[in-house]
């Protein structure tokens, strides 16, 4: 994998970086929870979401699709979402189990992505299930950011759990197939993934999984 210094200053990569910067004021506004602050929060959320769409479009349009960008985009997404959801847990009664499983899945993706780079020298590409998961979690976050309680909130949360499961399996199958052909190793890795997930579920069983 080759990364050139000038790639950090490509517009698409700067847009990815901007999402991490934007979540700093967003976290403060979530904690403040004022009417004016929530309006500003909504505007910042729309801007952050727009950068997630624009960075990929611009990189393709300018023929600046790089391995740095492939890595940077999801990492910035994960940092931004982790900060936002942690703030929502602390200040707006967001379901703790959902973000814990979200962070667990992302930790596994980072570990498997690092292993894949070591083996193939190429980063793991985001797939349709990963993008669907990001979209669903974005809608859930928006629901909590603007404090609109509606009958669809728990449906969105349920879709969040489902998308986590499907995207985890999808990335796991793809990553393991590329990393090793040994079925015993694959089986062992799946056990190492599933057992902690069951333990997390057990330790979080006293918390509300929905509103």
Distinctive features:
211 residues; mainly alpha; 7 helices; flat
Summarize the structure.
The protein has 211 residues and is mainly alpha-helical. The chain is 79% helix and 0% strand. The chain is built from 7 helices and no strands.
Q: Your description of this structure?
A:
By secondary structure, the chain is an all-alpha fold. It starts with 10 loop residues before the first helix and ends in an 8-residue tail after the last helix. It folds into two domains: 8-92, no CATH class; 95-211, no CATH class. 79% of the residues lie in helices and 0% in strands.
Describe the SSE topology.
Layout: H1 11-32, H2 35-61, H3 67-92, H4 96-120, H5 128-145, H6 153-179, H7 183-203
Largest sheet: none
Helix and strand pattern: HHHHHHH
Strand content: under 5%
- The helix count comes to 7
Helicity level: over 70%
How would you describe the shape? flat
Give the overall pLDDT as a whole number.
Answer: 89
Structural class by secondary-structure content: mainly alpha
Radius of gyration: 18 Å
Number of strands: 0
